[in-house]
Amino acid sequence: MMEMLKLAAVTVVTVVVTVVLHELGHLAAAKALGYEAIIRLNSVSVIGGTHSVRDAIIIDAAGPLVTLVIAAIGLAMAHRPGGLGATIVFAALMMRILATAVSIGNPNDEARISSVLGLGMWTLPALVVAILLWMMVLVARRSETGPKWFAVSWIGASIGFTGVVFGERFLPAIPV
């Protein structure tokens, strides 16, 4: 029982860290392009908007690219005992699945880029989710995951994402 509680807690923390690093990717791109921005727990806004479509694409792409790198690190850690690598990949996968689902009403990073490039709104979100799903399959084969692991990780991820989404309004927006 304690092992399952530990896994759930590690998953919650991993989800929050993954989301924050994803947003810091957007922020780093915005700052590198010379923009002032506001960062929140689950979003980054460029103050005054971007000056070009190119800049908007770069800033939008930075978060998902960071998420893919995080998942690749998790995949590289998959052979280590303890399952942290699997938890990292799972958090990244669930983050992009949820972001894609939300795109129905509010296009996510990949959906905005996909639309601007004329690929249709769902092409890039589906591609990113497919890559992360492939990583999850690989990590599941290499590590100690099973139905119980997935159930507990799902609960931990649900708690983590609920905290991120509903907790954002209680934290300050930070101009950078």
Weakly predicted, low-confidence segments: none
Morphology call: globular
Q: Spatial order of the strands in the main sheet?
A: 2-1-3
Q: In percent, how much strand structure appears in the residues?
A: 5-15%
Q: What is the averaged pLDDT score?
A: 95
Order of H and E elements: HEEHHHHHE
Distance between the termini: 43 Å
Helix content: 55-70%
| Total domain modules | 1
Structural Rg: 16 Å
Number of strands: 3
Q: For the report, how would you describe the main beta sheet?
A: 3 strands, antiparallel
- Helix count from the secondary structure assignment: 6
Structural class: mainly alpha
List the helices and strands and how they pair.
Elements lengths: L1 H31 L4 E4 L2 E4 L6 H24 L7 H19 L6 H8 L6 H20 L4 H21 L6 E2 L1
Antiparallel strand pairs: 1-2, 1-3
Helix pairs in contact: 1-2, 1-3, 1-6, 2-3, 2-4, 2-5, 3-5, 4-5
Could you characterize what this model shows?
The chain has 176 residues and is mostly helical. The protein has one domain (2-171). It is 70% helix and 6% strand. A three-stranded antiparallel beta sheet has the order 2-1-3, covered by helices on one side. Strand 1 (37-40) and strand 2 form a beta hairpin. The chain is globular, with a radius of gyration of 16 Å. It starts with a helix and ends with a strand. The model has no long low-confidence stretch (mean pLDDT 95).
